[in-house]
Amino acid sequence: MIRRWFTSKNKPPQPVLDTRSTDSTMKVCRNDVEDQDPIKEILHFKSRLQEFGIDFNHLVSSTPKEFENRLHAIQVAEEIAADSEMRNYFLTWKRLPLLHDQKTQQQKLTMKRQREYITALTLIFIENYQVLLQYLPGTGGKH
Hints:
The protein has 143 residues and is mainly alpha-helical. The protein is 50% helix and 0% strand. It is built from seven helices and no strands. Helix 3 (67-82) crosses helix 4 (84-93) and helix 3 (67-82) packs across helix 6.
């Protein structure tokens, strides 16, 4: 779905972020199956959203109304979280890796319209919030 435009741009490699940091705020997000505290998870998610300039309360109004659009946004977020290069770009620059291609104009517009929702989903997948994953359609709480 999202093509790797990083290699075509001949950019220098981005710094690699270690998402398993020893920082106390990062420990909260790496929940084990037996240690799931929804309150800690939501508070950590809320603080991570603020780092990306997204208000937790505004996230509800920015959620796509159509089910197909929500599933498409989930697919885009899963792809960003799964690819280490795009994930590092996302975490380093705090923005989504957009496409620069005429063939993918519709996907580019979708990503611009749903930027906040896709950013939140990507954070959920990267940080592995087990409680929040259960509420995403199509993931079944497993990722």
